[in-house]
Amino acid sequence: MTHSELLQEAIKARTKAYIPYSGFGVGAALLDENGHVHHGCNIENAAYAPTNCAERTAMFRAVADGLKPGTFRAMAIVGDTDGPIAPCGVCRQVMLELCGPDMPVILGNLKGAIRETTVAELLPFYFSSSDL
């Protein structure tokens, strides 16, 4: 699957967002080692703290479906932003734990802007299990 195709999957995932408070939908598409795509969308809550980002929804869904952390090949994230959207710090930490530092991350927006990076580039000087 190309990065462009994975971004299109993230756009599909974004349409599933539950965003009654912010109206700001985000979609994520996580590609696993078997070529399967796991969609994630942000899901808001009136209490805000229980809100879950699209990136974490996709990763948690994949793990809950039985896939092992570290077996993911790439993630695309898209939002209705001026430039390519970037994941929050919490999502970056979870990406490091479940996907690994070298996994490609494709950041995009609905206008077609794209930035390709890796988990480690998104979270330099990261904290991992080797620090415990």
TrEMBL record:
Residues involved in Zn(2+) binding: C53, C88, C91
Needed cofactors: Zn(2+)
EC number annotated for this UniProt entry: 3.5.4.5
Domain of life where this protein originates: Bacteria
Ranges where the CMP/dCMP-type deaminase domain occurs: 1-130
Reactions mediated catalytically: cytidine + H2O + H(+) = uridine + NH4(+); 2'-deoxycytidine + H2O + H(+) = 2'-deoxyuridine + NH4(+)
Record keywords, A-Z: Hydrolase, Metal-binding, Zinc
Residues that, per the record, bind substrate: N42, I43, E44, N45, A46, A47, Y48
Any one of the GO BP annotations: nucleobase-containing small molecule metabolic process
Major enzyme class: hydrolase
One Gene Ontology molecular-function label: cytidine deaminase activity
CC per GO annotation: cytosol
InterPro entries in alphabetical order: APOBEC/CMP_deaminase_Zn-bd, CMP_dCMP_dom, Cyt/Deoxycyt_deaminase, Cyt_deam_tetra, Cytidine_deaminase-like
UniProt-annotated catalytic positions: E55 (proton donor)
Protein purpose: This enzyme scavenges exogenous and endogenous cytidine and 2'-deoxycytidine for UMP synthesis.
UniProt family annotation: Belongs to the cytidine and deoxycytidylate deaminase family.
PANTHER family the UniProt entry points to: CYTIDINE DEAMINASE (PTHR11644)
NCBIfam families: cyt_deam_tetra (TIGR01354), PRK05578.1 (NF004064)
Name of the protein in its database record: Cytidine deaminase
Name of the coding gene: cdd
